[in-house]
Amino acid sequence: MRAMPNHQDDRLSTSDQAPFDPLAQSETGQEAAGEPLSFFEDRPTDRPLPPLTVNEGPAKDIDDVIARLDALVSESLRDGLKIGYFAALYLRVTLAVKRAIIAGDVFQDNGRMEELDVVFANRFLRAWEKQKTGGTPSAPWQSAFVALERDELLVVQHLLLGMNAHINLDLGVAAAEVMRRRGRPIHELRADFVMINEVLARLTRIVQVQLGELSTAFGVLERVGPELQAKLAGVVMSGARDEAWDLAVELMDCPDLPTWRDTVRRRAKNAALIADKVIDPSLVERMLRPIVSDERKHGVRFNVQVIAS
Asked: What domain range is 239 assigned to?
């Protein structure tokens, strides 16, 4: 039996695992609240992060990420929170990444992949924590979180809003952050970046299958209008991998923190425009809107359970 890969030494320590969110500052350019990126300047110790669901501070390893996502799914089931849609889907994908790391023959560097997974996930977890505590997350996450209050949106729209923020913004930022922190060129990550995107692509396939179970409306779309289904996912996923990689490359070339912030903020605005398209009701045929009542008939808790199962 093959022994589980031991990459404990490659994991981030608690002190290294609190990356500054370049979008924590306001759009007016005021001083950001939070820790600066360690590869630009030293991180101050007098600005603690708000507590997350499970432990204080950011997740430390992939098991910690899984525990936090699972806690968020449980909270969503208990309280009927729509954030549970994306959290349940993300939990499944993170479990798949962990299994690939355990297998040991999927990624070129398992320790680096776990580091990327953790940095990547922490961007979502911190964005949600900011939303809950009255802070301001990045523009596409803010669009996704505000949309949770809109009853007319489909489950698929909520899922795609989360995917948009996380893939079209967070993935490239996380990739650049990991490689700059390691002091290594970005091209060394390319093969594993492509592979992690293959795992992320399962999001789209899971969305298609799960929503066929959740909603008669999406089932009808699947049977009579596959091009409409493709359009829903295509708004978010079309070219997302290449654009995320381009963002990572661009961030690797940033000479200082202000340039990094400006680059991330510019990409965040673009991702927010994609969010506007996802929310646009014309993406779903108006004739199917009455059938969408199936989703509301089942309720948020039922929908979260289906996605998580």
From this structure: 48-308
